[in-house]
Amino acid sequence: MKTLIVSGGELNKDFLQAFISNNEMDYIIAVDKGLEILDSINILPNCILGDFDSIKNGILEKYNRQDIKIIKLNPEKDFSDTHMALKEAIEIKSAEIYILGALGKRIDHAIANIHILREALENNIECKIIDTNNIIKLITKGTEVVHKSKYKYISLFPLTTSVKGITLKGFKYPLTNDMLTIGHSIGVSNELLENIGTISISDGILIMVQSND
Hints:
Strand order of the largest sheet: 4-3-2-1-5-6-7-14-9-12
Distance between the termini: 32 Å
Helix content: 10-25%
CATH class of the largest domain: Alpha Beta
Radius of gyration: 18 Å
Structural class: alpha/beta
Strand content: 35-45%
Largest sheet: 10 strands, mixed
Number of helices: 5
């Protein structure tokens, strides 16, 4: 099952519409203000979730009359709305999860949303945060195949204290059985020389950011 989570951060309407048109989703979760942008392009979600503290008056009422799952959260909670949406996506046995609207002006929310990807990783679920300029995912022990795309730059940051046994093939700046540790910027702005590259690691978790200007 492919699940799309539309959160309440900055999100280009045309990008969202193109993403939904080009990627067949089995289940769509609207997170709080994310419902507004889905409503503006006439996309009906399967689930609406949030504390609804930032959504415009009247929008939610429109969907109360339809056969849609609505999960109302307490504003004072331990997990963010987007994290709760991720938990819902895991609960319904998603095999792939895509999160749009997870980045924006609030850097604290953006950092939190990157960190919650670990829960999907620990459940062996492919999960990505995507916007017009970035694709963000976590990779762990094993080999990740990366394809050249419009997201030209590939940056790697350790999520764990250190990541060991890193080997990069097909990259402008290759590595062989190397290590990255928190507090250094050496992993920023690498590029693929070939159409396909590989990232192999033996221990730890990397944040992989594919980006364009």
